[in-house]
Design brief:
The chain contains 13 helices and no strands. It has helices spanning 2-11, 16-29, 33-46, 51-63, 67-80, 85-97, 101-114, 119-131, 135-148, 153-165, 169-182, 187-199, 203-215. The protein starts with a helix and ends with a helix. It is mainly alpha-helical and 216 residues long. Helix 1 packs antiparallel against helix 2 and helix 12 (187-199) packs antiparallel against helix 13. The longest helix has 14 residues, at 16-29.
C-alpha cells in the first residue's frame, strides 16, 4: 500500500527525490534488494554528493551479502562528508565482521567522536570489545549507553553477557532482569537469564525463562 501511494505521489508531481528515496527504503525493509538498489543507483546518478544515499545504498549491498561493495559505498559517504557518523558506524560493522578489529574500533570511536550520544555505535563498540575479551572496556561502553538511556535493553543484556564471562552470576542475573523489564519481548535476554539462573541453581526459574524465550 505504501508503494502504491508513493507511485501516486510521483504521478501527481510531489518531490521526486524524497519519494524515490522513500520507495527505496520500503523495498529495503521488505528485503527486496534488486529494486531497492536500482532506485538508489538512480538517485545517486542524480545526487552523487549525498552521503545519506551512499550510506543507504551500502546498507542494501551489506544486507544482500555484497560486503566489499557495501564498504566501498560507506567509504564514499565519508569521503563526501567526513562527519557523517552513521557511515562510520557501518564501516565499523563491516570491518568487525572482516576481523579488522583495530580498524573497526577506530571507526566506531570516530562515529562517537562526531556524535557522542550515538548509542548504536557505542553498543556495537561494546559488543566488539566483549568478543575481544576486553571486558572492563566493554562494561564501560555499556554503562555509557545506560547513562544516556537507563532502560536500554541491549545495554543491560550486554552487561549481563560480560558479567557471565566474569563468572559474576548474581550481578549477571540482575542485569538480565533489567533487560527483560525494559523489553519483555526480548527473547535473547530471557534465554540469557535462564542460563544464569541455572548457574545459580534456580532450575525452576531457568525453565520458566527458557519457555518464555521459546514462546517469543
Amino acid at each position: 500500500e505504501a508503494l502504491r501511494e508513493y507511485r501516486l505521489a510521483l504521478e501527481r508531481g510531489e518531490d521526486r527525490r524524497l519519494t524515490l528515496q522513500a520507495m527505496a527504503e520500503v523495498h529495503l525493509l521488505k528485503r527486496d534488494f534488486p529494486p531497492a538498489l536500482e532506485l538508489y543507483e538512480s538517485l545517486i546518478h542524480e545526487f552523487a554528493d549525498s552521503p545519506k544515499l551512499w550510506t543507504e545504498r551500502g546498507v542494501v549491498l551489506h544486507q544482500a551479502g555484497r560486503v566489499d561493495e557495501a564498504l566501498a559505498s560507506y567509504r564514499e559517504a565519508v569521503g563526501i562528508d567526513p562527519e557523517y557518523a552513521l557511515a562510520w558506524n557501518n564501516i565499523g560493522v563491516v570491518l568487525a565482521h572482516q576481523r579488522e578489529t583495530d580498524n573497526a574500533i577506530e571507526a566506531f570511536r570516530k562515529a562517537l567522536q562526531l556524535r557522542a550520544a550515538f548509542s548504536l555505535a557505542r553498543l556495537n563498540l561494546a559488543l566488539l570489545l566483549t568478543h575481544l575479551r576486553r571486558y572492563q572496556l566493554a562494561l564501560e561502553a555499556y554503562r555509557q549507553v545506560l547513562a544516556e538511556a537507563p532502560t536500554s535493553a541491549p545495554a543491560w543484556n550486554g552487561i549481563g553477557l560480560v558479567l557471565v564471562e566474569l563468572k559474576r552470576f548474581p550481578d549477571a542475573r540482575n542485569a538480565f532482569v533489567r533487560a527483560v523489564d525494559a523489553d519483555p519481548q526480548n527473547a535473547g535476554a530471557h534465554y540469557n537469564l535462564s542460563f544464569t539462573l541455572s548457574n545459580l541453581g534456580d532450575f525452576d526459574g531457568a525453565l520458566r525463562a527458557t519457555k518464555r524465550a521459546l514462546e517469543l
